[in-house]
Each structure stands twice: as structure tokens, then as C-alpha cells.
Amino acid sequence: MTRSLVIAPQWIGDAVMSEPLLASLAARGETLAVAALPWVAPVYRAMPQVREVIELPFAHGRLDWSARRRIAATLRGRFDIAYVLPNSIKAALIPWFAGIPQRVGYRGEGRWGLLNRQLPNPGGRPPMVAFYRALAGELAAAEARPSLSFEPAVKQVAARGAGVEPGAYWAFAPGAEYGPAKCWPAAHYAELARSLHVRDGLPVLLLGSGKEAALCQQIADAAPGACRVLAGQTSLMDAMALIAGARGLISNDSGLMHVAAAFGIPQVAVFGSTSPEHTPPLNPRAKVLWLKDELGLDCMPCFERTCRYGHTRCLTEVAPQRVEAALHDALAA
Fold first, then answer.
1. Which helix H or strand E contains 28, and what residues bound it?
2. Contact status, residue 245 vs residue 152, Cβ threshold 8 Å
């Protein structure tokens, strides 16, 4: 049996979209371990095909040369092949230091000596699932979508911790790690929360990182009694479990959007500066709102962190009523 090490990407959404690659590798008999940074490691714990998750104690953006050598020493002789998903030079160091015989990845950042099976980087912005699945070779051509799973007890424990019952709440993920140009306005989220709460009485859980707590509090303050701010108060594992147990999720193009898609729950994703042609929620129960053709804005998609024109019309013109209607469609799907 082939023993495989996967070096995971650093973003939650990319980690989710790597799942079809891991499913392909496991289907052909490879035993999988994943080396991941702590903030994405929980994603791989929701993939049954992963036998082991190795948390990497590295700070974001740092080379940590000596620490990578120490970790590699613990892995020496354990693996036959490594799949390096990020394109950075530092991501390829551990498999090379560990002496793993086959080291597969894309060309990038002068990795000629570190990888001995290199794929050419595709042009433009390819769909990420296909980008990662290509590392599996001949199995990459098949259609696939990411899938995550939790035991019911995991969802129940997370729901109890939030003071709700599974299936009896909505979840909003109003933040985006990349920047404000991806964020639907807080006032729109608040209006939608008020409408949903008036209609069915269910609470709205506001999820995200500690950096998004202020944004979530702004939404909650504008929708009195409708929301509970959990941003920065839950682990990623609990946030994922709350999403898995939600009646539905409203979000921007973000990592938690991809988490919801992989759990297959009803969801609405609002896109603005980015494109659903590149990173769509791969979920038959997802509805995407992207007004590129309707608005006729030549700047869409700009892929910028902040709007260069300062108006963010690509997002402000997505009305809350339209998102609520899309949510009804997603629930009926």
C-alpha cells in the first residue's frame, strides 16, 4: 500500500476544495496523512479518508527553516510519495528534507530541486478542484465535488454549546479573509436577519474569526433580538459543525462558504469582486448571486482586496429581498 503525505494549502476554502484529490488517492489504495497549518487542520478531520492530520506549528508567511527540518526528521521513512498543494517553496521543503522518494506538485518559486514530478501551472484562474485533482494524474478528469462529514453527535454538541438545536437556526458568515471587496454590506445582512427572524422565529448565528467579531456585532446591533454573535468565540471545528447543522447559510465568497457546500446544506453565496467561475460553491443546494451581466460593470471581477472605485456596487446592489428569495429556492432544491 502506498503511504502518501499531502501538504495542505493555507486557506480554508482551498483545503475544502482539495477533498476530491484526497478521495481519488484513497480510492486507488493510498493511505493518507495530511500536514496542515492549525487553522485548516480541522477541515481534514472532517474527511474520513484521512488517516492522520499532522499540525504544522508555523507562523503565517515565515520560512521557519529549522522547524521544518525538525518535523521532516520525524517523517523520514514513513512515506512513499508527497503531494505538495501550495505553489510556494516553503511548502515543498518538508517532503524534501524528509527524503520522500516521489514529490509531486506544480512548478513555482524555484522548486526544481525540491519536487521531482512537476506539473505546468495552468494559465488564468482555473477551477480549484480540477487544479488539485490534476495532481492525481489519470483520475483527475472525472467530475467531483468536495464532501465533508461529521457524526450527528458532533453537530449536537456544537449546537448545545451555542444554545440552539440542530436544524433550528440560520447561519451567516459575513466576513472574508481576503478583504472587504468580497463582503456583502453589514446593513444588508442585518435586514435579512430581521426578516428571517420575524418570519420563523429562528435565531441567526453569526460565524467567523475574531477579526470579524466587530462586523458581526454591527449586524447584531442592527437586528435586535435576531442574532447571536459567535465570531471569535468558537473553534473552527465547532463553527464547521454549526454550519453542518444549520437550516441554511448566507455568506460571501469565503472559506465557510465552501465548508457549507461540502456539507451539502442549503446556501446562498453572494459574489462581487471575485468570480463563481473560479471558486463556486460546489453544492446542488447552493444558489449564487453575481450581478456581472446585470450591472454591466467592466471591473467585475477585479479580484482586489478593496474596491478601487469606492462604491462596491457589485455587492451593494444585491438586495436583501433577492437573497431571501434565493434562500427559499435553495431550501426547495
1. none
2. no
Nearest Cα to Cα of residue 101 among 75, 74, 140: 75
User: 3-141: which CATH topology?
Assistant: Rossmann fold (3.40.50)
- Is pTM beyond 0.90 here? yes
Which residue shows C-alpha cell 472587504?
180
| d(C-alpha 162, C-alpha 239), whole Å | 10
Could you tell me the residue ranges of all domains in the chain? 3-141, 152-332
**Nearest to residue 273, comparing CAs of 306, 295, 317, 318?**
306
Question: For 233-281, how does the pLDDT look when each residue is reduced to its tens digit (9 = 90+)?
Answer: 999 999 999 999 999 999 999 999 999 999 999 999 999 988 998 889 9
User: What residues contact residue 6 under an 8 Å CB cut-off, 6+ apart?
Assistant: 18, 21, 22, 25, 32, 33, 34, 35, 82, 83, 85
On the CB side of 114, CA atoms within 13 Å amount to 20
